[in-house]
Amino acid sequence: MLNKTGIPTAEDVKKVSPSEDRLKKGPVAIIECFQEIPCNPCTEACKQGAIQPMEDINNLPKLDFDKCNGCGVCLSRCPGLAIFIVDASYSDTEAVVRIPFEYLPVPQVSDKVVGLSRAGEELGVFEVIKVQSGGQKNKTYTLWLVVPNDLAMDVRSIRLGGVRHAN
Amino acid sequence: MRITEHPILEFLRGEEISFFFNGQELKGFEGETIAAALHAAGVRVLGHSHAMHRPRGLFCAIGNCSSCLMDVDGEPNIRICVEKLKPGMRVETQQGKGCLR
Amino acid sequence: MPKVKETEILIVGGGPAGLSAASAAANLGASVLVLERDGKPGGQLIKQTHKFFGSKKQYAGDRGYQIGDLLIEQCGNNPNVEVWTDTTALGIYEDGVVTAEGQAKHLKINPKKIIVATGASEKMIAFPNNDLPGIYGAGAVQTLMNVHGIVPGKRVLMIGAGNIGLIVSYQLMQAGVEIAAIIEAAPTIGGYLVHASKIQRAGVPILTSHTITEAYGDESVAGAIICKLDESWQPVSGSEQDLKVDVICLAVGLSPLTELCFQADCQMKYVSELSGHVPVRNEYLETTRPGLYVAGDVSGVEEASSAMVEGRLAGISAACSLGYGEDIAPKLQAEALAELSELRAGPAGQKTLRGIMNLMDKGGAVC
User: What InterPro entries does the database record attribute to this sequence (chain A) (predicted)?
Assistant: First the structure.
């Protein structure tokens, strides 16, 4: 399915998801990298030793969820923009999802945005609570979105150009 | 249409200059190609094919395909996708195969 | 009589392979001249806005244009490297003289070694009205958009879901252009799936097993008809969709730009996995014409990361054959070869590996 549409299946996602318990403990990286390609910047980005060095550069990244503190450095380094940070400990009902962003306009803190699924489908209107710049060289922004708990593993993008709904 | 803001790139444009397309005065920037300036001005049809008179536009933009040949300052068959724009240039739709005057 | 320019190593093409070859050879002490057709070296790298894959050794994590600038700087800082821009190589003669056109002059160069790093050109596909203005090669869209800062239109149909189709779609979105759809005739996406996923989740559909049946419009593109393909790649009747677009972008593959290799009488072979006719060469990228090396897409279409490593390998090998760095060259060559095997070891590199095996097999049909 993924190689026909670009949309990872629930099964694909399950393989890279931490346990419910780990999610509840606090921020953690979700590495949605499902294809063996020659690429390893995430292993060098991780200062926690959570993403293990690869024996072969074509290996899929292996993340130790218990060592990961959700710092988000790997998110801003991943050339494929395939890493997200999920913090299910944000409140009783809400989680924070951090996503990479390389379009304009860049949303501002407290803006409302339309959250999208991996398939680009609308999941609701969510608030941006933090915007991190990647800096002069990196240039990838990290957007922090507050979403309902049950959508924490589904919201992965936002509609471009502000709150604009599909027809 | 020109990009004014881009999430990754910055565009350092030269000085704004005037040139002529089939007699009409248009603006462009020094250092860009004639094709770029025409595109920014919304001109997509650059000529017509010899035999069938079908419209021709920019295709490769790097000097490979010859789809963009025009007459520039009296010289025919100029690949405008690689030829740089200069102030006052007269860019004309080419009729036929062109001949050197 | 025009003066003949003497140089030790002549490199044709200032893209990722050519520039990497230039600094590698110059670092060992050889004098190098690079011919670049465009006004600025860097090839297609300078048009890439995304972060590159690979490892640190191939500048992974840096964006393509940043890597391009770095390679240009490395050559600029090296007194052994001379770069002639706006200069097009015209021919390689039997006596080894290479001619070129630059600044409206006919130039003659007499090198001891030649590295051909001319890259690749875009393929075309047949459909009614494929000659309308508004139909561009993906490279043209990149040039207009990322070099000149001009968008090609408002709404685009992208044809091809290989890496170029996916990357250029993403670049169009970054420039604020809408993508109506990305269509791909094959049943699966050819490019890296991380590229596909980031486009799909921004709301752009990627339609595999779909093709274009015709473009329409009077003087320029006003729309396109697309349709589904069945398992035997035949159009499914009734599946037609009419897309109102003002741009159709073709990203349907590349062919190695091998005219100079043919002309120099290198032994050539058609290898489909390498995307066309390519010169037969040894492990160190020397062709059957002694002293003529190839690197990058001209030796088989692949990624920019491997083009840079191939360039380095060809540069070291050419310099070493002139007596430079004989002590360290074998180690540097081994390092480059190891990097190439590493880059090609995964599933994504299997096609290239098969192609190279096919190319090296002396028993195959020879053109």
Answer: 4Fe4S_Fe-S-bd (IPR017896), 4Fe4S_Fe_S_CS (IPR017900)
Arithmetic mean of pLDDT, A13-29 = 97
Q: What is the pLDDT of residue C327?
A: 96
The predicted-structure confidence for C257-314, as pLDDT tens digits, reads as follows 999 999 999 999 999 999 999 999 999 999 999 999 999 999 999 999 999 999 999 9
Q: How far is A116 from chain C (nearest CA, A)?
A: 7
- When CB atoms are compared, the residue of B7, B11, B60 closest to C122 is B60
Q: How many domains does chain B have?
A: 1
Q: Provide the number of structural domains found in chain C.
A: 2
Residues of chain B with C-beta less than 8 angstroms from the C-beta of A139: 7-8
Structural domains in chain A (count): 1
From chain C, the residues in CB contact with B60 under 8 A are 121-122, 137, 139-140
Structural domain harbouring A145: 2-158
- The answer to whether B76 and B100 are in contact (CB under 8 A) is yes
DSSP A57-100: TTSPP-B-TTT-----HHHHH-TT--EEEEETTS-SSEEEEEEE
Closest CA–CA distance from residue B59 to any residue of chain C (Å): 5
- Any long-range contacts for C350-353 (C-beta under 8 Å, 24+ apart)? C351/C273, C352/C273, C352/C274, C352/C300, C352/C302, C352/C306
Residue with tokens 């403990």: A25
Interface mutation target, options A104, A136, A140, chain B, most CBs of B under 10 Å: A104
Range of the domain at B46: 16-92
